[in-house]
From TrEMBL:
Organism: Pedobacter metabolipauper
A molecular function (GO) term: small ribosomal subunit rRNA binding
InterPro entries the UniProt entry points to: Ribosomal_bS6, Ribosomal_bS6_sf, Ribosomal_S6_plastid/chlpt, Transl_elong_EF1B/ribsomal_bS6
PANTHER family: MITOCHONDRIAL 28S RIBOSOMAL PROTEIN S6, SMALL RIBOSOMAL SUBUNIT PROTEIN BS6M
Gene3D superfamilies: 3.30.70.60
GO CC, any one term: cytoplasm
Lineage: Bacteria, Pseudomonadati, Bacteroidota, Sphingobacteriia, Sphingobacteriales
Alphabetically ordered keywords of this record: Ribonucleoprotein, Ribosomal protein, RNA-binding, rRNA-binding
Pfam families tied to this protein: Ribosomal_S6 (PF01250)
Family: Belongs to the bacterial ribosomal protein bS6 family.
Protein name: Small ribosomal subunit protein bS6
C-alpha cells in the first residue's frame, strides 16, 4: 500500500454545509474502497493564485490516505464528474514526504525555541 495526498478545490459558491457534504462523499469513497485515511485537513476558503472559471477563491481540502492504485482511479473519476470541484491533485508520497508529514502532525515544527532568562 502506498500513501497518497489529494487536494480538492471546491467552488466558492457553495455554502459551508454543502462543501462539507461534498467532502464527506469523497472521504466515504476512499474508506469504502478499503483505504485508510491518515489525516484530513480543511483549509477553508482561500484566494486562488489565478482565476479558474472566473472564480478568484475556493474551498481547499487536503486528505492523506493509504491505499492501492485502484482507489485513486475511482476517486478521480468521481472528482472529474462533479461540477462543484474546480481542481484536484493527487500525488503519491515517497518515504521522505511521509516522514515529513508525521513530524508535522506531531508538532515538531511548531515548537518555539527555548530562551534562557537573562539574569
Amino acid at each position: 500500500m502506498n500513501q497518497y495526498e489529494t487536494v480538492i478545490v471546491l467552488t466558492p459558491l457553495l455554502s459551508e454545509e454543502i462543501a462539507k457534504e461534498a467532502l464527506a462523499k469523497y472521504s466515504k469513497i476512499i474508506t469504502d474502497s478499503g483505504a485508510e485515511i491518515v489525516q484530513e485537513d480543511n483549509w477553508g476558503l482561500r484566494k486562488l493564485a489565478y482565476p479558474i472559471e472566473k472564480k478568484a477563491s475556493g474551498f481547499f481540502h487536503l486528505t492523506e490516505y493509504k491505499s492501492t492504485g485502484e482507489v485513486i482511479s475511482k476517486l478521480e473519476l468521481e472528482l472529474k464528474r462533479d461540477e462543484r470541484v474546480l481542481r484536484f491533485l493527487t500525488i503519491r508520497l515517497d518515504r521522505h514526504a511521509v516522514a515529513y508529514n508525521e513530524k508535522k502532525r506531531s508538532g515538531a515544527f511548531n515548537k518555539k525555541p527555548k530562551t534562557e532568562a537573562a539574569v
